[in-house]
Amino acid sequence: MNEFLWVEKYRPQTVDDCILPEETTKMFKGFIEQGELPNLLLAGPAGIGKTTIAKALCNELGADYYVINGSDEGRFLDTVRNRAKSFVSTVSLTSEAKHKVLIIDEADNTTPDVQMLLRAFVEEFQGACRFIFTCNYKNKIIQPLHSRCSVVEFNVRGKEKQFLAAAFFKRVHQILAEEGVEFEMAVLREVVLKHFPDFRRTLNELQRYASRGSIDAGILGNSSDIAMSDLMEFLKHRKFTDVKKWVVANMDNEPHAIMRKVYDSLYTYLKPASIPEAVLVIGEYQYKANFVMDQEINLVAFMTEIMMRCEFK
Question: In angstroms, rounded to a whole number, what is the distance separating the alpha carbons of residues 129 and 38?
Answer without folding.
Answer: 10
